[in-house]
Amino acid sequence: MKSKLSGRFWLALTIFSLMGQVAWVVENMYFNVFIYKMFNASPADISAMVTASAVTATLTTVFMGALSDKIGKRKMFICGGYILWGVSIFLFVLLREDLIGKTFAFMGSAASVGISLTIILDCLMTFFGSTANDAAFNAWLTDSVGGDKRGAAEGINAMMPLVSILVVFGGFMFFDLDKASSWSIIYTIIGVAVTAVGILGFFIIDEPEIQKADGSYFGSIIYGFRPQTIAQNKRLYLSLLAFIVFNISIQIFMPYLIIYYEVSLGMKDYVLIMAPAIIVASVVTALWGKVYDRRGYSFSGTVSVVILLIGYIVLYLTRTTLPVFVGSLLMMSGYLCGMAVFGAFIRDNIPQGMAGRFQGVRICSQVLIPGVVGPMIGKKILENAETIVGGDGTVSFVPNANIFLAAAVVAVFVLPSFIKKKKQ
């Protein structure tokens, strides 16, 4: 099937995908820094925040994705969600120890109250963000693209997580994160930008034509998890199973990647390694989506995972700058290209008009299960890792290259999923 997509579609895809990922990068990579620096949070506090956010994201995507199917609308959830998402980010400006101390003095220390409020606001932000991005935006993308443009669109969408890392890293370089005033400026900028994108969406997003879901709302919620649904969509669920394994492989090393560069390899200028690798990998991914359109799931998926495996091996065997750059480039290219291939194939196999009901299943495959299993494997691999003592007497672990070897072993089990599969 040949399809023609308007310039407004590509503009909406680029802006909403990028801005959504910028907001997620701030949450996933810097909220822990914020709660640590501003309120002296413990590892248990940070763990509680991450867990609460992951559960909130999964439940929100399940319930709100089904609701968007039931109502038969995507645009209102995307635009309204982004606006409220931005407002919830801006509310973090109020999380200052001096303000909390004056307002909540009756509740105990300002630091402990600040930690609790940060976790609560994080969950609120995640609710709006998952409604807008994980549930509605992803369903809109599935509804809006088909035929020979699926891979091209997914290539753009898949490259945005790493592009957003560059945007955030570059922007945060100008701030002293030990100062509360810096965080206030950051949250104001991000909050206003996300809200502005939500308002812009009313003018550039076209509402796809979808039918309202039949049956009860509860039936829509559980639809993607029913055995009958799985039996009727075997290709889809087999690809989701492979997607789980793929993302587990990524989550084994990803939480430790920056620490590995900076501490284990002593590369204080690791950004100079990551930035070029991310840029090249992002361009490769945008082009790789078109390979999926032409050659299909089996070829494009196999090549992606093989590139990922080669990257893992290079990172496992080398320690000097140039080989590490090459390994990082291959690893990131394989990772992003794989995300594009899986994303396109999953969207191709979601029944028409049911995209919202399947977003909960997708996020379980992409976020929830890999986000629990992958770090557990990484933690096990690093149990006996070398430790170092800091100037203040604290002891920290040093990640080793075994995380890449473990990730490679898991990734090998993804390859059989591409055998005898063709793009629909």
Summarize the structure.
The protein is mostly helical and 424 residues long. The chain is built from 15 helices and 2 strands.
What does this protein structure show overall?
The structure is a single chain. With about 425 residues, the protein is an all-alpha fold. It has two domains: about 210 residues, Growth Hormone, Chain: A, CATH 1.20.1250; about 200 residues, MFS general substrate transporter like domains (Growth Hormone, Chain: A, Up-down Bundle). The protein has 15 helices and two strands. A two-stranded antiparallel sheet has the order 1-2. A hairpin with a 5-residue loop joins β1 and β2. α1 packs antiparallel against α5, α2 packs antiparallel against α14 and α6 packs across α12. About 50% of the residues are buried. The model has no long low-confidence stretch (mean pLDDT about 85).
Q: Supply the CATH architecture of the largest domain.
A: Up-down Bundle
| CATH homology group of the largest domain | MFS general substrate transporter like domains
The CATH class of the largest domain, by name, is Mainly Alpha
Q: Summarize the main sheet.
A: 2 strands, antiparallel
Large-scale geometry? globular
Report the sheet-strand fraction.
under 5%
Instruction: Label the structural class.
Output: mainly alpha
